[in-house]
């Protein structure tokens, strides 16, 4: 199966690695060459660390990295059997990408979105094959996290669902079926908790106290604010805004502090500053 991943950001790069680690040859497409360069550097550092820790040999690491090729035009998706889109979480951007993919991909190709909560049916509506479109939601970091959520749009057919489920198994992921509702399962529960943690900081709590409390009192591997910095404050805010707009319910209102942080360019680990400071 020829797999193409669209987007070289945190998720697109991680999904490419998850596939490459399971022996798939992957083409990663990003129309911004600088994003591709950044992904290559991140990957090289990640695998240098694994080699240094004795988790894999240099040869094994190089073999994984060599299974990913990069391209900066959608034409490289022409012979894909499965295209996994992981571009920014904005419906206009996703729709533009899917409209482009429908033009260049062969008619049998399955097109899936890694959206963390947008409507699959809406994304599918701009293609010539809504029956072959569905959601496959990975979690960050994608090579490590065991779950993917499978989301069928209104038109997704059984053949598409079954092929994608088999693919998910082949890259060693557990699957759950999630309803086509904003946030699906995990983000609908997890992201409001992160949002609540941001409200606590806005109201004067120390981020370290909030995170320590949740790590030691609720056995989270990372505190909610560390996790927000880890996935990106912009990504988390976009997901929360998606819940708010999708359900039209004030219980999902995004914390204003998150909006201010994004405006200030405090995006978490990737920018060097979020709830905590990081060495770039
Ligand atoms: N990309 C790829 N792999 C990564 C990584 C990254 N950014 N960060 C860590 N890893 C890998 C490491 O290479 C390491 O692999 P090896 O065992 O082969 O060496 C492994 O993860 C463990 O890493 P560490 O030993 O450095 O650190 P750790 O034991 O503290 O684990 C963690 C790190 C797995 C990220 C852990 O802290 C954790 O599970 N955190 C919570 C993650 C989480 O909740 N994710 C969901 C986010 S929500 C989401 O993704 C939804 C959305 O739509 C945005």
Q: Topology, pairings included?
A:
Blueprint: E1 3-6, H1 10-21, E2 26-29, H2 33-52, H3 58-66, E3 68-71, E4 82-85, H4 91-104, E5 110-113, H5 120-124, E6 133-138, E7 147-152, H6 158-170, E8 174-177, H7 186-202, H8 207-218, H9 224-231, H10 233-247, H11 256-263
Helix pairs in contact: 2-3, 7-9, 7-10
The structure holds acetoacetyl-coenzyme A.
Keywords:
280 residues; alpha/beta; eight-stranded mixed beta sheet; binds acetoacetyl-coenzyme A
General description of the model:
This protein has 280 residues and is an alpha/beta fold. It is built from eleven helices and eight strands. The protein has helices spanning 10-21, 33-52, 58-66, 91-104, 120-124, 158-170, 186-202, 207-218, 224-231, 233-247, 256-263, and strands spanning 3-6, 26-29, 68-71, 82-85, 110-113, 133-138, 147-152, 174-177. Strands 3-2-1-4-5-6-7-8 form an eight-stranded mixed sheet, with helices on both faces. The model has no long low-confidence stretch (mean pLDDT 97). Acetoacetyl-coenzyme A (CAA) binds at residues 14, 46, 50, 53, 55, 116, 139-141, 143-145, 187, 190, 221-222, 227, 231, 235, 239.
Detail the poorly predicted runs: none
Biggest sheet details: 8 strands, mixed
Oligomer: single chain
Please write the string of helix (H) and strand (E) elements. EHEHHEEHEHEEHEHHHHH
List the ions, cofactors and other small molecules found in this model.
acetoacetyl-coenzyme A
Termini separation: 37 Å
**Average of the residue pLDDT scores:** 97
Helix percentage: 40-55%
Structural class by sheet pairing and helices: alpha/beta
Biggest sheet strand line-up? 3-2-1-4-5-6-7-8
């Amino acid at each position: 199966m020829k797999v193409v991943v669209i987007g070289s950001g945190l998720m697109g790069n991680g999904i490419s690695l998850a596939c490459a680690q399971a022996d798939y040859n992957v083409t990663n497409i990003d129309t911004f060459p600088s994003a591709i360069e950044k992904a290559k550097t991140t990957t090289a550092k990640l695998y240098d660390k694994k080699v240094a820790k004795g988790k894999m040999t240099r040869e094994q690491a190089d073999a994984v990295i060599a299974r990913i090729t990069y391209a900066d035009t959608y034409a490289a998706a022409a012979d894909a059997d499965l295209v996994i889109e992981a571009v920014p979480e904005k419906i206009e951007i996703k729709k533009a990408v899917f409209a482009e993919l429908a033009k260049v991909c062969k008619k049998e190709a399955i097109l899936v979105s890694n959206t963390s909560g947008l409507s699959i049916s809406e994304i599918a509506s701009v293609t010539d094959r809504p029956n072959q479109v569905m959601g496959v939601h990975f979690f960050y970091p994608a090579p490590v996290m065991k779950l993917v959520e499978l989301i069928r749009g209104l038109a997704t057919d059984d053949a598409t669902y079954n092929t994608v489920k088999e693919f998910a198994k082949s890259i060693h992921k557990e699957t759950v079926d999630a309803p086509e509702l904003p946030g699906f399962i995990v983000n609908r529960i997890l992201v409001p908790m992160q949002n609540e943690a941001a409200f606590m900081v806005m109201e004067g709590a120390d981020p370290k106290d909030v995170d320590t409390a949740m790590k030691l009192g609720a056995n989270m591997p990372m505190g909610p604010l560390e996790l927000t910095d880890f996935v990106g404050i912009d990504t988390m805010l976009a997901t929360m805004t998606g819940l708010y707009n999708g359900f039209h319910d004030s219980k999902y209102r995004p914390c204003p502090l998150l909006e201010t942080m994004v405006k200030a360019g405090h995006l978490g680990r990737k920018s060097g500053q979020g709830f905590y400071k990081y060495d770039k």
